[in-house]
Amino acid sequence: MPLFLSFIVLLGFGIVAVYTASYPKAMTMPEAGFNSFYFTQRQIVFAVIGLALMFFIIARPLEWIYRYSYHVYIVTIVLLVMVLVFGRVVHGNQLSIWGIQPSEFAKVGLILALSAYLAKYPWRLRSSRGLITGPLPILGLLVVILMLTKDLGTTLATVAASVAMLAVAGMKFRFWGLPVLGLLALIGLMLLIGPKALTKVFGPRADRFAAWMNPEDTSIKESFQPRNSLIAIGSGGLIGRGFCQSRQKWFYLPGAHNDYIMAVLSEELGFLKLLLFLFLPYMYMVYRAFTIAHRAPDEYGALVATGCTVMLATQAIINMSVVTNIIPCMGINLPFISYGGSSLVASLLMAGLLLNVSTMRQVKERKNGEEPAMPPPPATGSPAARRASAR
Predict the structure, then answer these.
(1) I need a labelling partner for 307 at 20 to 30 A (CA). Which of 99, 221, 348, 375 fits?
(2) Concatenated DSSP letters for 124-178?
(3) CA 261, CA 49: separation in Å to the nearest integer?
(4) Is 310 helix (H, G, I), strand (E, B) or coil?
(5) Which residue, among 390, 370, 371, has the nearest Cα to 380 in the 3D structure?
(6) Which of 75, 87, 85, 105 is nearest to 340 (CA)?
(7) pLDDT at position 371, please?
(8) Span of 46-55, 71-80, 147-156, 173-182 with lowest mean pLDDT
(9) How far apart are CA 126 and CA 134, in angstroms?
(10) Which residues contact 322 (CB under 8 A, 6 or more apart)?
């Protein structure tokens, strides 16, 4: 129940945040009928759909979810391939098809498939050959497709969740720690090289690095968003301008109700109230979710809970870091807060998986309390074996 309430608090706060961040744009959109509640009404519909799916997931046995883990993964991979062929380009990224972003649901598919594999074949993590023939193809296929769609933020969140699941499953540090250190060293080298050299490798997308390093440089087109985001955060100060009083959301801050919604909230609420209504619920959610993963009834449940927790936490950290210009812009939503149907439904699906694992733990404890304890097996064999059995 505490974890469920934290999800509900974040969801309710997100609906209010979408309204205050989106009504300036909604009032000027002919396709929205100049309705200031246009985005808010859609977000409520997405929330209802997501909640229905969340309760459906909670009501299903964990064994039923395990049975269809690979099916969900395969379906999301097929949808991502269709995005590559027929998808619509959004801000330079090839993301959606039929109004759906399959990359959001691919996160859930990866968590389920990787958890099912690691729970069934844990011994394959003990060798490099087992990794190459097992978990790496499951992760690598998704990462390659995400990179082809130029969705860097989702790729990083996916890799972070997968590494956490592999570590929890028992993979040795040299197999997961050293690659992570190598990736961090590569990122540091890219930053030292500088934007001009990166432009030759990444093309126009390297402007995001230049804008990140010099947000005050108005000659860089990509610096418009981070500069106005920092202005909004600075204008809010500790106590904020007041609800619905943000100035930057009036067409100074692109994506005010999407990726940069936290900047609008910072300007209106200030740091102290944002800490109370946003940071503390997120921190409590992560704490409770890791507790559930630690007390999961089996290996599959522990891995699912770990993957969902790290995925949601990584998305939140990346989004907050982008808004505060700690890292370059990556185009990833703030879970439960930012506007977006696919993102919200996928986040609520992961919430349902976490609550399902928690419910299974409680059911198991209740059954164990009702049933008499099984007597220990008789000690046979050598005296050492008998002493070990007695212990």
Answers:
(1) 99
(2) GGGSHHHHHHTHHHHHHHHHHHHHHTT-HHHHHHHHHHHHHHHHHHT--HHHHHH
(3) 22
(4) helix
(5) 390
(6) 105
(7) 41
(8) 173-182
(9) 12
(10) 226, 259, 328, 329, 330, 332
